[in-house]
């Protein structure tokens, strides 16, 4: 039997509802697994971004403090953050 005959025979056969239910359950399991994996990936990316932002914030604060200290030592007064 050729390809066309094989396809025609398959289409003419009744659909096994139990097999379809099993297939739907497998698809639902894969979708749930992918959703969990995607959430875990997003959480990991969020933690990485938070860590990088925190580190950058600390570096910027240290640079600002150093700048204020240099200004204070050169002018003889203690400038505030807006000076």
Characterization of the model:
With 83 residues, the protein is mainly α. It has a domain at 15-71. 83% of the residues lie in helices and 0% in strands. The protein has two helices and no strands. The chain has helices at residues 3-12, 17-75. It is rod-shaped and about 95 Å long. 0% of the residues are buried. The model has no long low-confidence stretch (mean pLDDT 86). This is Os09g0471450 protein.
The coarse silhouette is rod-shaped
In the predicted model, the low-confidence regions spanning at least 5 consecutive residues are none
Distance between the termini: 88 Å
**Record field, number of beta strands:** 0
Oligomer: single chain
Task: Profile the largest sheet.
Answer: none
Protein name: Os09g0471450 protein
Organism: Oryza sativa subsp. japonica
Structural features:
83 residues, rod-shaped, Os09g0471450 protein, mainly alpha, 2 helices, single chain
Quick structural gist:
The chain is an all-alpha fold and 83 residues long. The chain is built from two helices and no strands.
List the helices and strands and how they pair.
Blueprint: H1 3-12, H2 17-75
